[in-house]
Design a protein that fits this description.
173 residues; alpha+beta; OB fold (Dihydrolipoamide Acetyltransferase, E2P); 2 domains; 9 strands
């Protein structure tokens, strides 16, 4: 026998604690991956910093095909639940010159809208290029499907290669 009974018992106890600590670490990792903060990380738009022209064209075509509506427009009204845009150009979608998008928000306990993960947060009077998707009868725009108009010139030209846009005249209220 190499060790006294007290030392062997202590080593077994430390081994047991190490196993318990290991299990706790695993449970903690699982809890972190299931937390809302980690789930919202899936909303991050990951783009290749140097895509080939063919890749850009293929991705644009795929986004166009999957979208219910593709347009540029100016935000003319918004609240916690709806964003209303006046269209400037349209490549795909209904014939109206305005479109309402759902933010997907739900009322909080005090009635304040709680935003849904992955929806784009529009700003009043800004112009955007939007690939909108219909879900459960509501049009929505997601984080990765909206571009500020000042950054969209190349994207607009690429869309015109898929289908020439329709232009809307500016309404003066």
């Amino acid at each position: 026998m190499c060790c006294s009974p007290g030392v062997a018992e202590s080593e077994r106890y430390i081994s047991f604690l190490n196993t318990k600590v290991f299990k706790m670490k695993i449970l903690l990792l699982i809890a972190l991956f299931l937390s809302p903060e980690m789930r919202s990380a899936s909303c991050v738009c990951v783009k290749d910093p140097h895509p080939s022209k063919e890749k850009v064209k293929a991705d644009r075509k795929q986004a166009y095909v999957q979208a219910t509506a593709v347009f540029t427009g100016k935000v003319i009204a918004l609240d916690g639940y709806t964003v209303k845009l006046r269209l400037k150009k349209r490549w795909k979608g209904d014939a109206s010159n305005e479109i309402a998008l759902s933010t997907g928000a739900v009322p909080g306990h005090d009635g304040t809208p709680i935003p849904k993960e992955c929806t784009y947060h529009f700003r009043l009077d800004n112009e955007y290029l939007v690939y909108a998707h219909e879900t459960a009868g509501k049009m929505k725009a997601y984080l990765c499907s909206v571009t500020l108009i000042m950054d969209a010139a190349e994207e607009e030209l690429g869309l015109d290669e898929i289908k020439p846009h329709e232009t809307f005249r500016e309404k003066h209220d």
